């Protein structure tokens, strides 16, 4: 069964009398455990697709079924609930709460779903260990490097054990070594069974995915299995 | 998220910008502070006036000369000459009047009192012996004006304790010493007990002379300024008022009560007038309270709007991670309530401190009322909800995509 099922998805932005077609009749499925990269030139509709997949926005037409739930017709609060339980976001700009400890940042989505404090702390500590930050749990976000902040963000994305991890240009703000660290984490998570969708315009990032969908003018230009052998990266730490 | 956690989080957010938090609460501090100060002083004032009135005697009826326009209830201050010592004696001796116990005819005037090189302008009251029991004036040393003094128009005088202090010096014994009123020498025979009064009508500053002496020797008149009547008990006040009224109308040969040449005031009339003044004062305070809290609340709203705008990205992130509308609204309202409640509590202490100091300066009893503390906390909390509502709504309405993109 597909964890993501997108069919005939279109998104048309209407500003005054101008209509911009950002996505047009896009259909694809993502199986559990896949590692998918979505590529395309600037303006090709990547972010629009990411917003819809992330339940941050609704399509103009078409349907989107995430883990068995039809997301395309939900209310604002229902969408918030879907984002909380089923989607782990990793943003280009990390988007941690400022001047807040790594631990608290990781705990935030669990707080919104009503997990008890003790349970939240335990889970957050586990996750920070997985991303290699067990010695940085009480550092606030501004005391961490970009790569470390993004690792906190990944731990946060995992906190609700989501159906998919959705990363929008997760390495866009990082230097090369830190970029490799982050890619390495995504690969490890994927090996552990997590479904990952990365949006990127950088081909060498996309090359680490198992499957690459390329968008062009809001339509799927190509959808291929990445045959190239995975590049071996050095482990972090 | 639990409320205690939310409160903790809000506190640490507010602690990040202490100066702004302080300035934001300042309006509420000043607002609540002045309200508490005024209320507390108002209550002290009211209490002190009530005490004073009650200390004059609770079964007291006061008959004054001058016209009245409805019944016997007096309409304005008159300096009529229509009440006489004979009226008072007739009242006291009447067999028709069953509801009164004691009658005290009085003539009060201000005059200059001199002893040695000291002098003072004060209230001189011509009295008979009944004055002491009607007005609850007791003697600290010596004796009060006696019937013999009245009959013989002696030049004996009884003084209040403040007069002793001011003319003879604190703690001195004035008995047997001479006091001059309007140049006429009087012999001091008694000092009254202190009533601890304050303000304009302070019995501790009174000087008592025999009524007949006051009328014939000091002021050269044959009328009274007041007849004070003590009713048998507080349940017969209205009946006593009517009996006295009809008795005096008959004596003065007046048929129409609206044409009465005197008026009767009861303790409850005076208390009623005072409580009317007090309630006017209270509504005035409520007005000031509303205005100052409005200004304080607008300050809070302003700060909260700035905060919401500044934290647009944070709000977007929180919504992306699963915060519902209600969660965001609660977060910002809790922040606003903490701001205003802090202001309210600080303002309360500030107000209590200020009213303590002021009441010491103007010599009023200091009272802390539980209701004013509840008011401070309740009103400031409510201000937080009212003025935090709109900013919280703006925050909750933000779209996560737009908010995350916001620079
Ligand atoms: N909020 C919007 N209003 C109008 N047009 C938009 C909006 N967001 C994106 N677009 C348009 O939709 C198209 C796809 O944009 P986007 O999804 O951001 O592409 P990408 O992320 O691949 O650069 C572009 O032409 C863009 O101008
Ligand atoms: Mg984009």
UniProtKB/TrEMBL annotation, chain A:
The keyword Transport applies. Gene3D superfamilies: P-loop containing nucleotide triphosphate hydrolases. GO terms for molecular function: ATP binding; ATP hydrolysis activity; transmembrane transporter activity. InterPro entries: AAA+_ATPase, ABC_transporter-like_ATP-bd, ABC_transporter-like_CS, ABC_transpr_LolD-like, MacB-like_ATP-bd, P-loop_NTPase. Keywords: ATP-binding, Nucleotide-binding, Transport. One of its GO terms (cellular component) is plasma membrane. SMART domains: AAA. Pfam families: ABC_tran. The keyword Secreted does not apply. It comes from the Bacteria. Residues 4-235 form the ABC transporter domain. SUPFAM superfamilies: P-loop containing nucleoside triphosphate hydrolases. This is ABC transporter related protein. It comes from Candidatus Woesebacteria bacterium GW2011_GWA1_39_21.
TrEMBL record, chain B:
It comes from the Bacteria. Its main location: membrane. The chain crosses the membrane at residues 21-42, 284-308, 329-358, 370-390. Residues 21-244 form the MacB-like periplasmic core domain. Pfam families: FtsX, MacB_PCD. It is a multi-pass membrane protein. GO terms for molecular function: transmembrane transporter activity. It is found in: Cell membrane. One of its GO terms (cellular component) is plasma membrane. Residues 288-400 form the ABC3 transporter permease C-terminal domain. Keywords: Cell membrane, Membrane, Transmembrane, Transmembrane helix. Belongs to the ABC-4 integral membrane protein family. This is ABC transporter, permease protein. The lineage of its organism: Bacteria, Candidatus Woeseibacteriota.
């Amino acid at each position: 069964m597909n964890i993501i099922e997108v069919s005939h998805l279109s998104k048309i932005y209407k500003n005054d009398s101008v209509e911009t077609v950002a996505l047009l009749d896009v259909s694809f499925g993502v199986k559990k455990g896949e590692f998918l990269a979505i590529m395309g030139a600037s303006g090709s509709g990547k972010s629009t697709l990411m917003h819809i997949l992330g339940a941050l926005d609704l399509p103009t037409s078409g349907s989107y079924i995430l883990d068995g739930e039809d997301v395309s017709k939900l209310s604002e609060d229902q969408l918030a609930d879907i984002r909380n339980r089923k989607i782990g976001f990793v943003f280009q700009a990390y988007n941690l709460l400022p001047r807040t400890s790594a631990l608290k940042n990781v705990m935030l989505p669990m707080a919104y779903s009503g997990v008890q404090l003790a349970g939240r702390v335990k889970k957050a500590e586990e996750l920070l260990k997985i991303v290699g930050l067990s010695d940085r749990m009480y550092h606030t976000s501004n005391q961490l490097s970009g790569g470390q902040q993004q690792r906190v963000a990944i731990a946060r994305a995992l906190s609700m054990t989501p159906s998919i991890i959705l990363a929008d240009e997760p390495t866009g703000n990082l230097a090369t070594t830190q970029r490799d660290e982050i890619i390495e984490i995504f690969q490890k998570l994927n090996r552990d069974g997590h479904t990952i969708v990365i949006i990127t315009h950088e081909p060498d990032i996309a090359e680490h995915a198992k499957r690459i969908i390329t968008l062009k003018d809001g339509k799927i230009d190509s959808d291929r299995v990445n045959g190239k052998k995975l590049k071996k990266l050095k482990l972090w730490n | 998220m639990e409320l205690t956690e939310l409160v903790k989080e809000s506190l640490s957010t507010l602690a990040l910008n202490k100066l702004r938090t302080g300035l934001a609460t300042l309006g509420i501090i000043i607002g609540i502070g002045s309200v508490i100060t005024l209320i507390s002083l108002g209550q002290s004032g009211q209490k002190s006036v009530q005490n004073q009135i009650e200390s004059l005697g609770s079964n007291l009826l006061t008959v004054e000369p001058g016209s009245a326009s409805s019944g016997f209830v007096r309409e304005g201050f008159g300096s009529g000459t229509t009440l006489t010592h004979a009226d008072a004696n007739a009242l006291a001796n009447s067999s028709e009047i069953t509801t009164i116990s004691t009658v005290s005819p009085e003539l009060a005037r201000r005059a200059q009192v001199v002893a040695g090189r000291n002098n003072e302008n004060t209230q001189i009251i011509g009295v008979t012996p009944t004055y002491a029991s009607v007005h609850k004036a007791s003697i600290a040393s010596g004796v009060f004006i006696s019937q013999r003094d009245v009959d013989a128009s002696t030049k004996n005088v009884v003084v209040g304790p403040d007069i002793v202090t001011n003319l003879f010096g604190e703690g001195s014994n004035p008995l047997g010493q001479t006091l001059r009123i309007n140049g006429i020498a009087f012999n001091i025979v008694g000092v009254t007990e202190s009533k601890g009064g304050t303000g304009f009508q302070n019995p501790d500053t009174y000087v008592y002379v025999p009524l007949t002496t006051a009328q014939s020797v000091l002021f050269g008149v044959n009328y009274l300024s007041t007849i004070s009547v003590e009713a048998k008990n507080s349940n017969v006040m209205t009946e006593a008022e009517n009996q006295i009224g009809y008795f005096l109308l008959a004596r003065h040969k007046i048929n129409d009560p609206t044409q009465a040449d005197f008026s009767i005031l009861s303790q409850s009339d005076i208390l009623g007038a005072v409580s009317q003044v007090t309630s006017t004062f209270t509504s005035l305070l409520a007005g000031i309270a509303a205005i100052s809290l409005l200004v304080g609340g607008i300050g809070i709203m302003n700060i909260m709007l700035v905060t919401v705008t500044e934290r647009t990205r944070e709000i977007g992130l929180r919504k992306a991670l699963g915060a519902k509308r209600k969660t965001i609204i609660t977060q910002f309202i809790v922040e606003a309530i903490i701001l205003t409640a802090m202001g309210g509590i600080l303002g309360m202490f500030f107000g209590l401190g200020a009213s303590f100091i002021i009441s010491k300066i103007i010599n009023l009893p200091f009272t802390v009322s539980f209701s004013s503390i509840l008011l401070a906390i309740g009103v400031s909390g409510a201000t937080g909800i009212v003025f935090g509502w709109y900013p919280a709504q703006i925050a909750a309405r933000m779209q996560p995509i737009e908010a995350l993109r916001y620079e």
